[in-house]
Amino acid sequence: MENYKYYLDKLAEVGTVEKVTSEVAYVKGIPNVRPYELVVTEDEQIGQVISISEDFAEVMMITGNKRQAGMKVARTSQNLEIEAGDNLVSHIIDPLGNVIAGEPIPGEGGKKMRINKLPPDLASRQNVEELFEVGVPWVDLVVPLGKGQRELVVGDRKLGKTSFLLQAVKSHALKGGKCVIAGIGRRQKEVMELNQFLGKEGIWKQVVVVVSFTLNRAGMVFLTPYTAMAVAEYFRDKGEDVLLVLDDLSSHAKYYREISLLARRFPGRSAYPGDIYFQHARLLERAGKFAKGSITCLPVSETVLNDISGYIQTNLMSMTDGHILFDTELYNQGRRPPINSALSVTRVGHQTQTPLYRSASRELSSFLSKHSRIRQLVHFGGEINMEVQKTLDREEKLMGLFNQPLGATVPINAGLIYVAGVWANIWPDIKGNDTKVIVRHLMEIFSGKSELETGLIKLISQSGSFNELVQKVKNYSALFELGSKT
Amino acid sequence: MNIYSEIIDNTRTPLEARLLVDEVEIMQDNLKSGELAEAKVAEKIRGEILGLIKNDKLQSGLSWENYLKGLKKLVLSLSEMELILAFEPSQAAMDRIVETVRSAVGRPILVNFQLDRSIVGGAVINFQGFHRDLSLGRDLEKWFGEQKF
Fold it and tell me: Which of B126, B132, B134 to mutate to test the interface with A (most CBs of A within 10 A)?
């Protein structure tokens, strides 16, 4: 971007700041200004026009701390753009594309991507048909995702949502997929921890982080997810399958509420502006499956006391293809991740599964539902017969798979074989931590370094349904041996 | 001649306009039974302005209340043009500039004279959101930038 004098000479239009609040400036003049256009003040601060009236243009200030009435403003005739390129990976950038941490971005020749743009039309979209492996069995087996799906991650604070998202990022990056993480109004400590995680896992080469801090201007924070989406669109246009994480949109809504109230917009429900739905919908609709590439979007929303009927939460649920609910009660019971599969939904995930996985998913969902009823019965002192005991034992073994350590990712095939093994009861005596040992062995088998992997993959590919797989697993002696290694 | 025209002709800059509005408000505050308490306002406003207003009001046939209301509304509605010069103009120069500008625009406007020696000569004009840089400084920069000496 050029300086104030350049645009003043080029476009020959000038405005004056008549009134100013902390985030919004009211500019008189600049008669041909358009909505979403960038303007620059005489001390080189940047703002974006959010609305135009007869007398003023309302400008949301993005940079700078100094605000003064009487300051001169020039139009730029530009919308906000970011120069996106392959050289953005391994960097933490701000919503304007400036590097926050690390080396300067090498090279030039990136593509200019508009930050605010209309979502693609219906004709350019395709069905979600390919499975998106997250590396978390709770999700991969019970609430599966597809490439191009928008799945909301919702729950109270400190329940492990961010850890879950990082597991998804790790899983996708290790397969060579690109990941874009948007940290919206984050603390610097959190960004530092993210930086350390990505470095430790060795996946920086596949990740771009777009971040705004709590100390930034509300306008800058507001732009963060749109910039992240623009970067994701660059990689999508190259034919890649991109994972986009937006952490979190509840904060984003609060910052937008702040800007709107300062701009004296009429407050709606919970004092949010009337167009908050539009702001999020126009962002999330840009994700999806397309002819060239896909953007799988995992927006996050924080709840208070597990209330998913909140305004922002219900808005986001209605504009996404499902949601994964993190439950406080399950967290308190020690479940990690504490995903409530009964209340989680995937609207397009099951169509990406093969018949085998679909039947396994159905079997698991039905078992978990039955188990929760039995648990309630046992809790109230109900009689425990053989059938009930069998269910409880099976559940205990399943938790060996579903309770995942932080940062660990479990290949989906490993999870499936484990579940089939539990159903086939090939490890009848294993309990507690021994289950985790078996899961670990299976993870090693499916890490591509074991001869057993080929045999097991063949087993999976030859099974048309979960019951068929269970029968085959009963006769697979190598799996029995895993039980003796505990 | 239209009502208010002579008064507006004497109001060239935003400062003069603000002063005039203040004076009109003083007169409005000193109206008793539809008549102006001249003795009270004479010590607070400019003598020549009071004279102009009295004559103009007489010719207009309006009541004091309506006349002052109309005058205030007109003055507040005047557009403002920012004119940046490299020198401080004399009164005569200011009159000439205002007359030229008003004749070019076709209606009364206020001219906000500002000083910026860095433009060297010429003028920079900002009017109704449009900007025109007719300064010598800019032309010199452009010319020396294009030519290789």
Answer: B126
